[in-house]
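Dissemination and training. As part of the outreach component of the grant, students in the summer workshop were shown how a complex can be specified as a set of sequence lines and then modelled as a single object. The example used during the hands-on session is reproduced here so that future cohorts can follow it. Participants entered these lines:
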Amino acid sequence: MPEGHTLRRLADSLQTAFAGRPVRTSSPQGRFAESAALLDGSRVLAADSLGKHLFVDFEDDRLLHVHLGLYGKFHVARRLPDPPVGQVRLRMVTADDGDPAYGDLRGATACELFTPEQHRALLERLGPDPLRVDAEPLRAWERIRRSRAPIGGLLMDQSVVAGVGNVYRAEILFRHGLHPLRPGLALRRAQFLALWADLVVLMQAGVRTGRIDTVRPEHVDRLGDGVRRHSYVYKRDGEPCLVCGSIVRTEELAARNSFWCPRCQPAYRGRAA
DNA sequence: CCTCTATGGCGAA
DNA sequence: TCGCCCTAGAGGC
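and obtained this result:
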Protein backbone atom coordinates (compact mmCIF):
# COMPACT_ATOMS: atom_id res chain seq x y z
CA MET A 1 0.00 0.00 0.00
CA PRO A 2 2.35 2.71 -1.15
CA GLU A 3 1.15 5.92 0.44
CA GLY A 4 3.53 7.90 2.66
CA HIS A 5 3.27 5.58 5.64
CA THR A 6 4.48 2.62 3.57
CA LEU A 7 7.59 4.49 2.47
CA ARG A 8 8.33 5.71 5.99
CA ARG A 9 8.04 2.15 7.26
CA LEU A 10 10.21 0.86 4.47
CA ALA A 11 12.88 3.48 5.15
CA ASP A 12 12.86 2.45 8.81
CA SER A 13 13.30 -1.24 8.07
CA LEU A 14 16.07 -0.59 5.53
CA GLN A 15 17.79 1.65 8.04
CA THR A 16 17.60 -1.01 10.74
CA ALA A 17 18.71 -3.87 8.52
CA PHE A 18 21.37 -2.21 6.35
CA ALA A 19 22.73 1.04 7.80
CA GLY A 20 26.51 0.92 8.13
CA ARG A 21 26.82 -2.36 6.26
CA PRO A 22 28.18 -3.28 2.83
CA VAL A 23 25.75 -4.90 0.41
CA ARG A 24 25.77 -6.90 -2.78
CA THR A 25 23.28 -5.49 -5.25
CA SER A 26 21.97 -7.21 -8.34
CA SER A 27 19.14 -6.94 -10.82
CA PRO A 28 18.02 -10.48 -11.60
CA GLN A 29 15.62 -9.33 -14.34
CA GLY A 30 17.83 -6.57 -15.60
CA ARG A 31 15.55 -3.56 -15.52
CA PHE A 32 17.64 -1.66 -13.00
CA ALA A 33 20.90 -3.39 -13.83
CA GLU A 34 22.80 -0.15 -14.18
CA SER A 35 21.94 1.08 -10.69
CA ALA A 36 22.64 -2.33 -9.24
CA ALA A 37 26.06 -2.57 -10.85
CA LEU A 38 27.09 0.90 -9.67
CA LEU A 39 26.18 0.15 -6.07
CA ASP A 40 27.39 -3.42 -5.80
CA GLY A 41 29.77 -3.91 -2.90
CA SER A 42 29.29 -0.49 -1.33
CA ARG A 43 28.25 0.40 2.16
CA VAL A 44 24.78 1.66 2.99
CA LEU A 45 24.88 4.77 5.16
CA ALA A 46 21.20 5.47 5.77
CA ALA A 47 17.67 5.20 4.42
CA ASP A 48 15.01 7.87 4.52
CA SER A 49 11.68 8.77 2.95
CA LEU A 50 9.90 11.94 1.95
CA GLY A 51 6.33 11.66 0.79
CA LYS A 52 6.16 8.62 -1.48
CA HIS A 53 9.87 8.76 -2.31
CA LEU A 54 12.51 6.51 -0.80
CA PHE A 55 16.19 7.42 -0.58
CA VAL A 56 19.04 5.08 0.26
CA ASP A 57 22.31 6.80 0.96
CA PHE A 58 25.46 4.90 -0.03
CA GLU A 59 29.09 5.71 0.65
CA ASP A 60 30.97 7.89 -1.85
CA ASP A 61 28.04 10.31 -2.17
CA ARG A 62 25.77 8.01 -4.09
CA LEU A 63 22.05 8.29 -3.52
CA LEU A 64 19.53 5.70 -4.66
CA HIS A 65 16.07 7.04 -5.40
CA VAL A 66 13.13 4.61 -5.45
CA HIS A 67 9.52 5.31 -6.28
CA LEU A 68 7.13 2.38 -5.94
CA GLY A 69 4.41 3.79 -8.15
CA LEU A 70 1.10 2.02 -7.92
CA TYR A 71 2.26 -1.59 -7.79
CA GLY A 72 5.78 -1.51 -6.47
CA LYS A 73 6.87 -3.54 -3.45
CA PHE A 74 10.16 -3.55 -1.57
CA HIS A 75 10.22 -6.65 0.54
CA VAL A 76 12.80 -6.53 3.34
CA ALA A 77 13.58 -9.52 5.55
CA ARG A 78 16.30 -10.23 8.09
CA ARG A 79 17.52 -13.54 6.80
CA LEU A 80 19.35 -14.95 3.81
CA PRO A 81 17.39 -14.67 0.57
CA ASP A 82 16.07 -17.59 -1.44
CA PRO A 83 16.88 -17.68 -5.15
CA PRO A 84 14.84 -14.89 -6.81
CA VAL A 85 11.39 -15.91 -8.01
CA GLY A 86 9.48 -13.84 -10.55
CA GLN A 87 10.35 -10.30 -11.50
CA VAL A 88 12.88 -9.11 -8.93
CA ARG A 89 14.20 -5.84 -10.31
CA LEU A 90 16.68 -5.03 -7.57
CA ARG A 91 18.05 -7.29 -4.89
CA MET A 92 20.15 -6.03 -2.01
CA VAL A 93 21.88 -8.50 0.31
CA THR A 94 24.13 -7.86 3.29
CA ALA A 95 27.75 -8.65 2.45
CA ASP A 96 29.31 -8.75 5.93
CA ASP A 97 29.20 -11.36 8.67
CA GLY A 98 26.27 -12.10 10.90
CA ASP A 99 22.63 -10.97 10.99
CA PRO A 100 21.89 -11.44 7.28
CA ALA A 101 19.26 -9.31 5.57
CA TYR A 102 17.99 -8.76 2.07
CA GLY A 103 15.60 -6.57 0.14
CA ASP A 104 13.73 -7.42 -3.08
CA LEU A 105 12.28 -4.63 -5.19
CA ARG A 106 9.48 -5.43 -7.64
CA GLY A 107 7.31 -3.35 -9.92
CA ALA A 108 8.80 0.01 -9.01
CA THR A 109 8.40 3.01 -11.28
CA ALA A 110 11.84 4.40 -10.46
CA CYS A 111 15.08 2.94 -9.13
CA GLU A 112 17.94 5.20 -10.07
CA LEU A 113 21.01 7.02 -8.80
CA PHE A 114 20.29 10.66 -8.13
CA THR A 115 22.71 13.50 -8.64
CA PRO A 116 22.72 16.14 -5.89
CA GLU A 117 20.94 18.39 -8.38
CA GLN A 118 18.13 15.89 -8.96
CA HIS A 119 17.82 15.36 -5.24
CA ARG A 120 17.58 19.06 -4.53
CA ALA A 121 15.03 19.58 -7.30
CA LEU A 122 12.80 16.84 -5.93
CA LEU A 123 12.97 18.11 -2.35
CA GLU A 124 12.08 21.55 -3.61
CA ARG A 125 9.09 20.28 -5.54
CA LEU A 126 7.52 18.29 -2.71
CA GLY A 127 5.12 19.79 -0.19
CA PRO A 128 5.28 19.15 3.57
CA ASP A 129 5.05 15.51 4.67
CA PRO A 130 2.77 14.91 7.67
CA LEU A 131 5.12 12.16 8.85
CA ARG A 132 8.08 14.46 9.29
CA VAL A 133 8.57 16.36 12.54
CA ASP A 134 10.06 19.29 10.64
CA ALA A 135 7.08 19.58 8.25
CA GLU A 136 5.63 23.04 7.76
CA PRO A 137 1.88 22.64 7.25
CA LEU A 138 1.46 26.35 6.55
CA ARG A 139 3.31 25.84 3.27
CA ALA A 140 0.43 23.59 2.22
CA TRP A 141 -2.12 26.02 3.56
CA GLU A 142 -0.68 28.87 1.49
CA ARG A 143 -1.26 26.79 -1.64
CA ILE A 144 -4.73 25.61 -0.63
CA ARG A 145 -6.15 28.91 0.54
CA ARG A 146 -5.48 30.61 -2.78
CA SER A 147 -6.60 27.78 -5.06
CA ARG A 148 -9.95 27.33 -6.77
CA ALA A 149 -9.06 23.68 -7.41
CA PRO A 150 -11.02 21.07 -5.42
CA ILE A 151 -9.52 20.03 -2.10
CA GLY A 152 -9.76 16.41 -3.24
CA GLY A 153 -7.33 17.23 -6.05
CA LEU A 154 -5.04 19.43 -3.96
CA LEU A 155 -4.53 16.70 -1.37
CA MET A 156 -3.35 14.35 -4.13
CA ASP A 157 -0.91 16.93 -5.48
CA GLN A 158 2.47 15.96 -4.04
CA SER A 159 3.71 19.53 -4.30
CA VAL A 160 0.94 20.59 -1.90
CA VAL A 161 1.13 17.72 0.61
CA ALA A 162 3.65 14.91 0.19
CA GLY A 163 2.65 11.36 0.99
CA VAL A 164 -1.14 11.50 0.85
CA GLY A 165 -2.67 9.05 -1.64
CA ASN A 166 -6.15 8.04 -2.65
CA VAL A 167 -7.06 6.23 0.58
CA TYR A 168 -5.93 8.95 2.99
CA ARG A 169 -7.53 11.57 0.75
CA ALA A 170 -10.93 9.92 0.88
CA GLU A 171 -10.77 9.18 4.58
CA ILE A 172 -9.45 12.50 5.82
CA LEU A 173 -12.12 14.41 3.88
CA PHE A 174 -14.80 12.19 5.36
CA ARG A 175 -13.52 12.63 8.88
CA HIS A 176 -13.68 16.39 8.46
CA GLY A 177 -17.03 16.55 6.72
CA LEU A 178 -15.53 18.07 3.58
CA HIS A 179 -16.86 17.32 0.11
CA PRO A 180 -13.99 16.42 -2.24
CA LEU A 181 -15.07 19.10 -4.70
CA ARG A 182 -14.94 21.95 -2.23
CA PRO A 183 -12.50 24.52 -3.61
CA GLY A 184 -9.33 24.97 -1.58
CA LEU A 185 -10.08 28.64 -1.08
CA ALA A 186 -13.39 27.74 0.58
CA LEU A 187 -11.61 26.07 3.50
CA ARG A 188 -10.95 27.97 6.68
CA ARG A 189 -7.51 27.97 8.18
CA ALA A 190 -8.74 26.22 11.34
CA GLN A 191 -10.37 23.52 9.20
CA PHE A 192 -7.13 22.90 7.37
CA LEU A 193 -5.08 22.81 10.56
CA ALA A 194 -7.48 20.29 12.10
CA LEU A 195 -7.28 18.19 8.93
CA TRP A 196 -3.48 18.32 9.01
CA ALA A 197 -3.31 17.33 12.69
CA ASP A 198 -5.59 14.40 11.95
CA LEU A 199 -3.47 13.37 8.97
CA VAL A 200 -0.43 13.29 11.26
CA VAL A 201 -2.25 11.00 13.70
CA LEU A 202 -3.66 8.67 11.03
CA MET A 203 -0.42 8.40 9.06
CA GLN A 204 1.64 7.80 12.19
CA ALA A 205 -0.76 5.00 13.06
CA GLY A 206 -0.23 3.69 9.52
CA VAL A 207 3.52 3.63 10.10
CA ARG A 208 3.06 1.64 13.29
CA THR A 209 0.61 -0.93 11.94
CA GLY A 210 1.52 -1.05 8.25
CA ARG A 211 -2.09 -0.52 7.23
CA ILE A 212 -4.53 2.31 6.77
CA ASP A 213 -7.18 2.18 9.44
CA THR A 214 -9.23 5.32 9.87
CA VAL A 215 -12.48 4.18 11.47
CA ARG A 216 -13.11 5.22 15.07
CA PRO A 217 -13.83 2.31 17.45
CA GLU A 218 -17.49 3.25 17.84
CA HIS A 219 -18.04 2.96 14.06
CA VAL A 220 -16.06 -0.17 13.30
CA ASP A 221 -19.09 -2.49 13.48
CA ARG A 222 -21.75 0.16 13.19
CA LEU A 223 -23.74 -1.83 10.68
CA GLY A 224 -23.94 -4.68 13.18
CA ASP A 225 -23.09 -7.37 10.65
CA GLY A 226 -19.92 -8.48 12.40
CA VAL A 227 -17.70 -7.05 9.62
CA ARG A 228 -14.99 -4.75 10.93
CA ARG A 229 -14.60 -1.85 8.47
CA HIS A 230 -11.25 -0.10 8.25
CA SER A 231 -12.32 2.75 6.01
CA TYR A 232 -15.34 5.06 6.16
CA VAL A 233 -15.75 5.65 2.44
CA TYR A 234 -12.75 4.40 0.47
CA LYS A 235 -13.98 1.63 -1.85
CA ARG A 236 -17.28 1.53 -0.01
CA ASP A 237 -19.39 3.04 -2.80
CA GLY A 238 -22.92 1.64 -2.83
CA GLU A 239 -22.70 0.69 0.85
CA PRO A 240 -24.25 2.55 3.81
CA CYS A 241 -22.21 5.23 5.56
CA LEU A 242 -20.92 4.03 8.93
CA VAL A 243 -22.12 7.23 10.58
CA CYS A 244 -25.42 8.22 8.94
CA GLY A 245 -26.42 5.27 6.75
CA SER A 246 -26.54 7.23 3.47
CA ILE A 247 -25.19 5.40 0.44
CA VAL A 248 -21.52 6.17 -0.18
CA ARG A 249 -20.83 7.65 -3.60
CA THR A 250 -17.89 7.60 -5.99
CA GLU A 251 -16.76 9.69 -8.91
CA GLU A 252 -13.46 10.24 -10.64
CA LEU A 253 -11.44 13.20 -9.39
CA ALA A 254 -7.85 14.04 -10.33
CA ALA A 255 -7.70 10.80 -12.37
CA ARG A 256 -8.58 8.63 -9.36
CA ASN A 257 -11.78 7.30 -7.87
CA SER A 258 -13.01 9.64 -5.19
CA PHE A 259 -15.43 8.44 -2.50
CA TRP A 260 -17.66 10.42 -0.18
CA CYS A 261 -20.85 10.35 1.87
CA PRO A 262 -23.41 12.77 0.41
CA ARG A 263 -24.86 13.56 3.84
CA CYS A 264 -21.74 13.75 6.05
CA GLN A 265 -19.88 15.64 3.31
CA PRO A 266 -22.46 17.99 1.81
CA ALA A 267 -21.80 19.52 -1.59
CA TYR A 268 -20.27 22.96 -1.61
CA ARG A 269 -22.70 25.69 -2.66
CA GLY A 270 -20.57 28.77 -2.43
CA ARG A 271 -20.83 29.18 1.33
CA ALA A 272 -18.21 28.67 3.99
CA ALA A 273 -18.49 25.36 5.81
C1' DC B 1 -7.99 -19.86 -17.78
C1' DC B 2 -9.29 -14.91 -18.55
C1' DT B 3 -10.27 -9.96 -17.37
C1' DC B 4 -10.42 -6.30 -14.29
C1' DT B 5 -8.69 -3.36 -10.81
C1' DA B 6 -5.39 -0.91 -7.70
C1' DT B 7 -2.80 2.75 -2.47
C1' DG B 8 1.09 6.56 -8.55
C1' DG B 9 2.89 9.55 -11.82
C1' DC B 10 5.09 10.71 -16.21
C1' DG B 11 5.07 12.55 -20.88
C1' DA B 12 2.71 13.30 -25.21
C1' DA B 13 -1.18 15.49 -27.45
C1' DT C 1 -7.07 13.93 -21.10
C1' DC C 2 -5.03 9.77 -22.57
C1' DG C 3 -1.75 6.08 -22.85
C1' DC C 4 1.69 3.82 -20.68
C1' DC C 5 4.77 1.87 -17.21
C1' DC C 6 4.64 -2.49 -14.04
C1' DT C 7 2.85 -6.40 -10.65
C1' DA C 8 -0.46 -9.11 -7.96
C1' DG C 9 -4.75 -10.29 -6.21
C1' DA C 10 -9.71 -10.84 -6.93
C1' DG C 11 -13.40 -12.46 -9.34
C1' DG C 12 -15.72 -14.48 -13.39
C1' DC C 13 -16.22 -18.46 -16.64
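Residues 1-3, 6, 52, 67-72, 109-110, 156, 158, 165-168, 212, 234-235, 255-257 of chain A lie near DNA strand B (CB under 10 Å from a C1'). Students were then asked to discuss how this feature might be tested experimentally.
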